[in-house]
Amino acid sequence: MEVAFIRKYDRTKPKPNDDLVNGKIRFREVLVIDQNGDQLGTMSSRDAQNKANDANLDLVCVAPKAKPPVCRIMDYGKYRFEKQKKEREQRRNSKVVSLKETQLSPTIDVHDKNVKLKRTLKWLQDGDKVKVAVRFRGRQMAHIEIGQKILDDFVEECSEYCVIEKPAKMEGRTLIAILAPKKNK
């Protein structure tokens, strides 16, 4: 007869991604579901482990916080593979939207503005948000309306490809507007 030593206080806490499998299941009683999805009822974790061993499968705890905890008899390797496959699929389908920044000044020339406009339009077409900032230096603060006009003209020229997520607003010495790409349908 084999005697398993179970610590009263287990100091090793399971990591969030660790699944409770076979010997790691330390509950007194568990609700067991077999490989076909049929409920076998509540039994001790040792009896449940023996049933899983008889079927040459693993005992996996799928709901440890339930009363009593729910364990399932299944092939753990296949279960883990399917779980990783779903996570990869979710990562592939999610798109990270980054925030790019275009800086203008109240004294910007036409050609410089066109270069920055071309780059901003490319970012918007790629699906990125763009923060357009007009920085005021020194005495330029006395003529904020000039910077406001430059920002408004810039946003007007971008309007075909974007929507204004946050309208122009002064933050310190900077006039900022945030543009988001239009959703293509």
Automatic annotation (TrEMBL):
Q: Give the UniProt keywords, A-Z.
A: Cytoplasm, Initiation factor, Protein biosynthesis
- Classify the main location: cytoplasm
**Residues of the Translation initiation factor 3 N-terminal domain:** 21-90
Q: What is this protein called?
A: Translation initiation factor IF-3
Quaternary structure?
Answer: Monomer.
Query: Can you name a GO cellular component term?
Result: cytosol
Please provide the Gene Ontology terms (biological process) for this protein: ribosome disassembly
Output the HAMAP family linked to this UniProt entry: IF_3
All copies of the Translation initiation factor 3 C-terminal domain together span 97-182
Where does the UniProt annotation locate this protein? Answer: Cytoplasm
Gene symbol of the encoding locus: infC
As one GO molecular function, the record gives: translation initiation factor activity
Q: Which Pfam families match?
A: IF3_C (PF00707), IF3_N (PF05198)
User: Which organism does this record belong to?
Assistant: Sharpea azabuensis
